[in-house]
Amino acid sequence: MNRRKAIQSFGMALGAASIPWPSEVKFENKSMLKGNIKHSVSRWCFDSIPMETFAPAVQALGCSGIDLLGPKDWPLVKQLGLDSTMCYWADEMSQTNSWNRLENHPQLIADYTRYINTVADAGYTNLICFSGNRNGMDDAEGLQNCVQGFKQILPLAEKRGVVLQIEVFNSKIDHPDYMADSSAWSVALCKALGSENFKVLYDIYHMQINEGDIIRTIQDQHEYFGHYHTAGVPGRHEIDDTQELYYPAIMKAIAATGFQGYVAQEFIPTWEKPLDALADAIRICDV
Fold first, then answer.
1. What is the CATH classification number for the domain harbouring 79?
2. Is residue 197, in this structure, part of any structural domain at all?
3. Tens-of-pLDDT digits for all 287 residues of the chain?
4. 262-265 vs 126-129, strand pairing mode
5. Phi-psi category of residue 258: left, alpha or beta, with phi > 0 → left and psi -120 to 50 → alpha
6. What residue numbers bound the domain in which 158 lies?
């Protein structure tokens, strides 16, 4: 069976074979999924699809939630019983000017105090954060600055049951000069903070570009990883066999660690029907 036919069959088994998905159709059959991976998807990659259509469609494909949503989208996902799997204030959070600079701490502490309480009040768990760019700063200094800042908000996160997750980015292509561009630096930050409420959002796409050795890193450092993102390398597109990463093996490595969190698809679709591409990614990752 070729890939397109496989996806059509997969979609039919989940309740629909055509895209876009009519919002009035109910999708409930997820019997094809194995249950070893908790699936999610990043909203921004599919933002051309209205949220009212997108949310029930991804639920039909077996996703338990959606990544990188802010409070404005929470009522809809709550209504559907979906999780906001990585909470994000898109207009307020800077990826380049953040926790590694002491001068940012007063504002960040005030903002994250509000974010943590809002996430907890909504019944969600994961809250994204960023290191910021180096701008000439030594990595050791940046690490210590991050430790100093995060220690001011971690007691609240622990009290409210919120997990702060620092995302790793590649600095070669997409995020030049970003400080948290290696698993080693990010894990060192976790160790220095020593809290189960601070984890690494391990982005497989970014780390393949910057350091490779994905499966060994997962096996060795998984206790510090609280969330995973996917995408194909090169190009950040579909995760199929046109790419250098073999995601079935990566997903098996994640599952073998006993990971109970989410794996979120974060590729930019190129297929004519983007949700067919998402269905294919879920099929590939459902090991």
1. 3.20.20.150
2. yes
3. 344 444 444 444 444 333 344 333 333 445 578 999 999 999 999 999 999 999 999 999 999 999 999 999 999 999 999 999 999 999 999 999 999 999 999 999 999 999 999 999 999 999 999 999 999 999 999 999 999 999 999 999 999 999 999 999 999 999 999 999 999 999 999 999 999 999 999 999 999 999 999 999 999 999 999 999 999 999 999 999 999 999 999 999 999 999 999 999 999 999 999 999 999 999 999 99
4. unpaired
5. left
6. 36-285
